[in-house]
């Protein structure tokens, strides 16, 4: 399976309280990309967590789900100060992008009309794709696409991946084996997974690590098929 998986230590759109413990229990697994959100943990605990991820050789992602220019700038500064490799989310503002261009971090903003918590994505396929392409043309490193937060999620994801060649992360609601197969078919650069592991969607009644191992084995099986 060519698409990379980004394991997000989040549930219900917040970083879980025991995120560091969960990471330590799973850091030996063959997952390179790990991340979390800016809500759920105090700043000092976020710093401890990202330091642990970096010490383990992981590539790190912070996802910011805020919508005002000031909130997005605050999120961008937090991602830089904590030393993340990637900032995902935020609405695109020139001011935020111009700041991030001066920093050693890659930026994957939301595209389309994003609002609410949990987030929803609205807009026609053409409008969402045009918005993404405009940001890509300005120089962002890729896009955070909340495909399955749109009422036509699968169709949007397929159309987007067929038309836009820059890196895209399909974020949210990859929560069963069928959707992993779908992701393999449309082949985005990466996709996120978090809540489905905490709610044991893949191995019922089992812990996070057991569910993540099941996902890894399934992705490896796709590679061999």
From TrEMBL:
Gene3D superfamilies: Aldolase class I (3.20.20.70). It comes from the Bacteria. This is 4-hydroxythreonine-4-phosphate dehydrogenase.
